[in-house]
Amino acid sequence: EPEVTQTPSHQVTQMGQEVILRCVPISNHLYFYWYRQILGQKVEFLVSFYNNEISEKSEIFDDQFSVERPDGSNFTLKIRSTKLEDSAMYFCASSEAMSGDLFGEQYFGPGTRLTVT
Amino acid sequence: AQKITQTQPGMFVQEKEAVTLDCTYDTSDPSYGLFWYKQPSSGEMIFLIYQGSYDQQNATEGRYSLNFQKARKSANLVISASQLGDSAMYFCAMREVNTNAGKSTFGDGTTLTVKP
User: Minimal CA–CA distance to B38: which of B21, B25, B24?
Assistant: First the structure.
């Protein structure tokens, strides 16, 4: 069964450092997403990406964050200068489509646990 | 206003019994999907079941069924014959097609504990 993969599974970084979280979405999917989940809290939307551009972003996704699809397979989330409050689980997700008869499952990766010290 | 409301922070169920996890939603988009995910203590999000807003019948996937009441805007998850491995956090989520670029909006979750 196809799956979304994410690396690393756990990243520890110092406050102020840049981190890049990597995701490989399912190969025929067109829509890509990043979510985060602070420990014990709900999953929050960060950004959606389609056709090589951001289609929507939340208030959380400020200038410290950026996303990129550098090649045909990877989808990355960069945090330029990490803060303590960026510590969370970051989930990548992808879906084949979002409307009509194809509207269906959004596949989530296993997550990257980011710890900022 | 909350788009997804899960009113049960924690639920307990006896092994082999059925349990219903509540979810209500709010949207003005006529085209949307409702999803349930399981998150075990290991942290991954496991897709369980999906219901589209135009689906006439309630979705079922093995021991999982979704009690979809469109007029009440509720999408409750029913787990039949609970197993110890069902102990986890359960999230209800919604995707609105026309208004939110397909992003998922999640509820606060319900922690389910299955007792032996």
Answer: B21
**Which residues of B are less than 8 Å from A111 in CB distance?**
43-45
Task: Please give the backbone phi and psi of residue A96, each rounded to the nearest 5 degrees, phi first.
Answer: -75, -40
- Whether B43 sits inside 8 A of A56 (CB atoms) is no
3-class SS string, B89-101: EEEEEEEECCCCC
Nearest residue of chain A to residue B44 (CA atoms) = A110
**pLDDT value for B102:** 72
Asked if A43 and B91 come within 8 Å (Cβ–Cβ), the reply is yes
What is the per-residue pLDDT for A71? 87
Measured between CB atoms, which of A41, A56, A99 is closest to B103? Answer: A56
- C-beta pairs of A27-31 under 8 Å, 24+ apart in sequence: A27/A2, A27/A73, A28/A96, A29/A94, A29/A95, A29/A96, A29/A107, A30/A95, A30/A96, A30/A97, A31/A55, A31/A94, A31/A95, A31/A96, A31/A97, A31/A98, A31/B102
- pLDDT above 50: residue A102: no
Q: Residue B79, Cβ neighbours under 10 Å: how many?
A: 24
Nearest to A21 by CA among A82, A63, A72, A62: A82
Q: Which residues of B touch A110 (CB under 8 A)?
A: 43-44
Mean pLDDT over A61-74 rounds to 92
* B44 with A106: Cβ contact below 8 A: no
